[in-house]
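Researcher: Re-running this chain for the archive, since the previous output was lost when a drive failed. Same request as before.
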Amino acid sequence: MERISSGIEGLDEIIEGGYPRGRTLLILGTSGSGKTILGISFIQQACSHGRKSMIIATEELPGDILIQSASVGKPVEEYYKNGMLLIDKVYEERSIYAKDLKDLGIEYIDKLQTNILGLLDKIPAETECVLIDNLGVFTLNMSPNEFRGQFDSFILGLTQRNLTAVIVMDVSSGNHTENIASYSVYGVIRAAIKDNPFTGKRERQIEILKMRNTKISLDPIRFDISSKGIELMKK
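Model: Regenerated structure tokens:
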């Protein structure tokens, strides 16, 4: 199976060459655990290899994404300006929609937060790699059954288009939907901040919970975030 680099030095070797091409990977994580940077690293690497890419941003403005990516040594502004990278403004759409309803005195019903399948229509035909950050905002008003129906169809649509996708989801949304998303995707990486009982310090870790057709270790991998991006730490 062809692989696409994760954009993180050392991680590709651990997962037999990178993320499986044409499949979807889920990154779960708590706030501040590095899940967004994991996704940006993948997109930056894809763009640097000439792969048309897209970020569907549900919680940040494009400008903030460009600033954050540069601050961790994974700048994407060049690709955004030359058209190699498209950043969809879902966050802005949601904000404007909510304001318009409020101005009209209409009760706030956020249809933009429950239409996961509609994201497929946002992805241009020539796109090869996609980052969706954070899918959790779509689950707030959904039952687990409704989420599964939409999510399974969404993953099928991505696969049929041969898109290599990374979906970021916060842990609380995963719990709300009974962790259904983990069953539908090809791979799952969980990022977390944990206390090290030996040093007494807090540290970031990633665990590769699932990666089909890949020999993986279940041992947690410690990492740090610097101006060079995510750096895996030696055991």
